[in-house]
Amino acid sequence: MTDRPYIRPRRLRTTPAMRRLVAQTSLEPRHLVLPVFVADGLSEPNPIASMPGVVQHTIDSVRRAAAEAVEAGVGGLMLFGVPAAGDKDVTGSGADDPDGILNRALAALRSDLGDSTVLMADTCLDEFTDHGHCGVLDDAGRVDNDATLERYVSMALAQVEAGAHLLGPSGMMDGQVGAIRAALDDAGHTDAGILAYTAKYSSAFYGPFREAVGSSLQGDRRTYQQDPANRDEAIRELELDLAEGADIVMVKPAMSYLDIVRDVAEAVVVPVAAYQISGEYSMITAAAERGWIDRDAAILESLTSIRRAGADIVLTYWATEVAARLH
Ligand code: PBG
């Protein structure tokens, strides 16, 4: 025995009720945002082989998936558009065309759901360009930052006019938040917000997404996305995005960048989002399919870790499923 007070941290782990009482991090449906892919020219949803359980939607099926997600209580939806292969071009003209797939899907969902959820749109050209880059190219074939900003502005206006509440510029062009904010304000769209992809790293874990959006990219995005080796640069990007008017800031990917999520969360008072990307989804799914990990537990643990690191909002392909499970 002992004459010292017997300190036993395990006392607080003895029963499920005790653990629930002292749990520091919570996961609620409203914290989760569902990314969805809507493709043009499909007669039925098209499964994405490298993301089992995720599909490219038709407009009809995305309406059902969105209604189900909202019913489950998710915080919002992030839409990506996938034009038919023959409709991609060098400037990504489908992106700001009101009849482009993404804008049609936004209009359909806004008319179904009104303000009952938060509709977000990917404001980026890579799904729409035939070369697959997030911007337009100069004569030398390099991504032209300022010419791209003009395209983002046009795309942002089309998306807000179609019904988006929040725009998600994901292309990592310098000045993208400021250019979009100024254009929205000039057009009177002062209530439309910007979820800035603040620290978006050039990641190998985006692999399955490239299949999901039928990307035609040859090469990589290292001249615009951040180098995984860099930490301080995320804070530099953060300061710029805040100064340019970002309403919410995001770190992406999530799991390999939890230190960055923590850095950003400690530096700001605006909400922080993190994106659990395609490769994160696919790794857990594949390992679970092989019986190597417990799928449901791994999903919850991954999302809890991202919240614990400091994310207020988590974009995850499991949003609907997990939100429903949390009830
Ligand atoms: C680019 C974009 C990417 C993702 C979202 N927007 C991929 C990329 O940069 O190649 C990745 C999402 C995911 O992997 O789940 N506009």
TrEMBL record:
SMART domains: ALAD (SM01004). Belongs to the ALAD family. It catalyses: 2 5-aminolevulinate = porphobilinogen + 2 H2O + H(+). It comes from the Bacteria. Catalyzes an early step in the biosynthesis of tetrapyrroles. Binds two molecules of 5-aminolevulinate per subunit, each at a distinct site, and catalyzes their condensation to form porphobilinogen. Pfam families: ALAD. Homooctamer. PROSITE patterns: D_ALA_DEHYDRATASE. Gene3D superfamilies: Aldolase class I (3.20.20.70). Pathway: Porphyrin-containing compound metabolism; protoporphyrin-IX biosynthesis; coproporphyrinogen-III from 5-aminolevulinate: step 1/4. The gene is hemB. Its EC number is 4.2.1.24. SUPFAM superfamilies: Aldolase. This is Delta-aminolevulinic acid dehydratase. Keywords: Heme biosynthesis, Lyase, Porphyrin biosynthesis.
